[in-house]
Amino acid sequence: MQNISDYFASRPAFQKILFIGLGILCLTPLVSTPVALVLGFLIAQLVGNPYEVTAKKLIHSLLQISVVGLGFGMNTYSALQAGKEGFIFAMVSIITVLTFGYLFTRVFNIDKITGYLISAGTAICGGSAIAAIAPIVKAKPNQISVALAVVFTLNSIALLIFPVIGTALHLSQHDFGLWCAIAIHDTSSVVGAAAKYGSEALEVATTVKLARALWIIPLSIFSVMVFKNRDSKIKIPWFIGFFIIAMLLNTYFPWVQRFSPTIVTLAKAGLTLTLFLIGAGLSFKVLKTVGIRPLVLAVLLWLLISIGSLLVIIK
């Protein structure tokens, strides 16, 4: 594998053409979200990512734009029902994960800030929560990198196995969407897994997950008090507001509905490309920097929320 990587590294022009070609392929219906993630991971190992810095910057914006676009395919009344049902579920799961995260961090003697970032990412919305909380707790670059690497790795696994588990357990579209929104860390993987399962699952998962993401605000305030960094600025996920506007436009303005299918198709293509870029950032070199204890913490919290929420849903 190293020889293959060295071969492409010595031919940067071909490396870039191959990477861009696969990225364009991910914009077509030929590639699903799980396949895009695997393609990105393979390209990172075999060829390398010639646009690593650019990709990291693009992922955040592309995901937000794609999520807003998905709002044009949703109905306000259905979304309110899903959000109402998932509110208490989300609150209880967030408090549970943060509590166990604190306990496990102490038991495994993990750095306090690293453990807190992993717990926050697992409890709310993966990379977005980590990015919002990191400046507040004054996290160092290596602490942020470890937390992001762990969360994105487990996200990737969830995206691949959740649809399989849901099918094996004969979960309904609604139940699967709710499970995804609660148990998968990052919005990109939640939407990707739900889109693979079905349109109703996608609507439930996206609505509940974005409602869950709003918990970044109270968690940020809590973090300011706990870490006593009162000069820190709280980041508000404004793109959720644009998602709500898109949903309202699609529900109450019939002329918008003529364009909605096209916008949703483009949004899904953007999401697939996002997952390709995320996969391309998951090299073995990055994963080796994580260490065993933070990984154990992340896995335990993920299993706790995944199995616990599934048992509540199917009971």
User: How is the main sheet built?
Assistant: none
Low-confidence stretches: none
From the helix content, strand content and strand pairing, which structural class follows? mainly alpha
How many domain regions? 1
If you compute it from the alpha carbons, what radius of gyration comes out, rounded to the nearest whole angstrom? 19 Å
The number of helices is 17
Instruction: Give, in order, the helices and strands.
Output: HHHHHHHHHHHHHHHHH
Q: Specify the overall morphology.
A: globular
Total strand segments: 0
The percent of residues in helical segments reads over 70%
Determine the mean pLDDT: 82
What is the beta-strand fraction?
Answer: under 5%
Give the end-to-end Cα distance, rounded to a whole number of Å: 46 Å
Summary of the model, kept short:
The chain is an all-alpha fold and 315 residues long.
